[in-house]
């Protein structure tokens, strides 16, 4: 094979940018982007991306491997930049919109961003970011404001406005030619679930393969209608930013993820697919009256993060959503499918090993290390915190719950439950009621020995519950020795439909 060198006839570097070039031909007149009253076709999106790529090089002097950062919600501009930035040979850095000025300034500084695009609603935050950067005596990136494309405000800040910059580009200028598929296409920063945020580089090859893998594993058919309820800044929208171009899908963009906006988008545009973190289920269920008219419509939903409890999945599927749960890491370029329907929990075991020569653990091993913390070992028995959470979610008073381990003198560790109650139950439910409810509905050794009521559970910038913070809190707790109590009202609506009385309560024991 050494006699047959790579050439155009037998080899092409893999890049998701090619999805757009193909979509402009195969799906030329099909809708590519919908945002309020603004609409584009795939031919138009390709044309605009060519213009922006040209302007990045000729106007902003962006060169190969320069980092271009963007701070924006799910709007057309950030979608276009997923193609235009690599078409200019540069590296896209999508910034989490929920971070504060200090965090974002640190990312811009660490990434050495040459240009910084930002949504018009972030001007105040950008002022603070600039102040942070000036205080560090660093060169400021070129500043480009993105005004609203549907209803422009006319506000100006920075060197250019996005549409002005696009207009300056030449669509006839050939885009950057990718020679090495290992070149960087994106620079992302982890959400800091288990440690400080880390910079993660995605290659063109990795982004291409992840996009194709997800489309195949999720079974995304031709010309889907995809709702952007997942932030595009999160792992590049789990690579569906590029993936939708591969399938000629319509990208329905919404600025704010609310139950009303989700329902309106689904009914108006006949949405077929969406991705989201489990927190979006909570948002929908809080205002589930919006979803009664869905009728026979079925929306495929891919969710990631901690496994959603079965009761929550059952409630969300009754509204017209079919849920597939996945797990993944920012470091692993996207998600891995692991199951669907009413059951939660990890399934398909996929390794993504890196070299162990230098003592580096595999990505999957790292994931296993983290997920093992969801197992509480009490007196030699393994307790799944997810199973305990599922039972607690069935309690009509519980809105959100997270279960972690706390120290126990006798058993080593035992479950501790942190709860957020529904508003109508706040101040009326006692810790003892929740503990006894658990003992009635699961093996007694699995029942939490302590319950902590919270106004809000701690979350990171991506909406994930910060269990490590709860574990730190639980370290200061000790399991109480509970004696017999008088009869207590318990809520067991999922069993009999009526509150029940506990006639005799024994002291809590291991079994």
TrEMBL record:
<feature type="region of interest" description="Disordered">
    <location>
        <begin position="333"/>
        <end position="360"/>
    </location>
</feature>
<dbReference type="GO" id="GO:0106290">
    <property type="term" value="F:trans-cinnamate-CoA ligase activity"/>
</dbReference>
<dbReference type="InterPro" id="IPR025110">
    <property type="entry name" value="AMP-bd_C"/>
</dbReference>
<feature type="domain" description="AMP-dependent synthetase/ligase">
    <location>
        <begin position="20"/>
        <end position="335"/>
    </location>
</feature>
<comment type="similarity">
    <text>Belongs to the ATP-dependent AMP-binding enzyme family.</text>
</comment>
<feature type="domain" description="AMP-binding enzyme C-terminal">
    <location>
        <begin position="387"/>
        <end position="464"/>
    </location>
</feature>
<dbReference type="Pfam" id="PF00501">
    <property type="entry name" value="AMP-binding"/>
</dbReference>
<dbReference type="InterPro" id="IPR042099">
    <property type="entry name" value="ANL_N_sf"/>
</dbReference>
<dbReference type="InterPro" id="IPR045851">
    <property type="entry name" value="AMP-bd_C_sf"/>
</dbReference>
<protein>
    <recommendedName>
        <fullName>4-coumarate--CoA ligase</fullName>
        <ecNumber>6.2.1.12</ecNumber>
    </recommendedName>
</protein>
<dbReference type="GO" id="GO:0016207">
    <property type="term" value="F:4-coumarate-CoA ligase activity"/>
</dbReference>
<dbReference type="GO" id="GO:0009698">
    <property type="term" value="P:phenylpropanoid metabolic process"/>
</dbReference>
<dbReference type="Pfam" id="PF13193">
    <property type="entry name" value="AMP-binding_C"/>
</dbReference>
<dbReference type="InterPro" id="IPR000873">
    <property type="entry name" value="AMP-dep_synth/lig_dom"/>
</dbReference>
<feature type="region of interest" description="Disordered">
    <location>
        <begin position="484"/>
        <end position="511"/>
    </location>
</feature>
<dbReference type="InterPro" id="IPR020845">
    <property type="entry name" value="AMP-binding_CS"/>
</dbReference>
<feature type="compositionally biased region" description="Basic residues">
    <location>
        <begin position="350"/>
        <end position="360"/>
    </location>
</feature>
<keyword id="KW-0436">Ligase</keyword>
